[in-house]
Amino acid sequence: MDTSRAWRTAKVGGFTLLEVLIALFILAIALAAVMRNLTGAITTTGALRERTMALWVAENRLTQVATVIHWPGLGRRITEAREDGRRFRVVTHVLATAVPQVRRVQITVARSGRHHSLMRLVGFVRKP
Hints:
Mean pLDDT: 88
Strand content: 25-35%
Order of helices and strands: HHEEEE
CATH class: Alpha Beta
Strand order of the largest sheet: 1-2-3-4
Structural class: alpha+beta
Number of helices: 2
Oligomer: single chain
CATH superfamily: GSPII I/J protein-like
């Protein structure tokens, strides 16, 4: 049997080691890009969840101020709230407006122990 003919037949049927290494290198780069995008998506999802919880806390606080029977006094009040097992610091700032029967209520929500605010909500309350 002619060995050169057998070698050519075997060579045509498979990949060389260099081709396999190049394919693995390209696959590794693609997987690294996918992992980076996935990590970014997870981080964004967590941040959106935090902001959603902070919005709910702010809306709850504004509803409490609007539905209370007595007229809210001017000034700033700091309280704490819980939502979904998380603790939030709520700053309620009541300001006068040009209309004497209406007050502006600004609510700022941050995670407890942090100064970076997650949500700011502004509403107006009419005198009962």
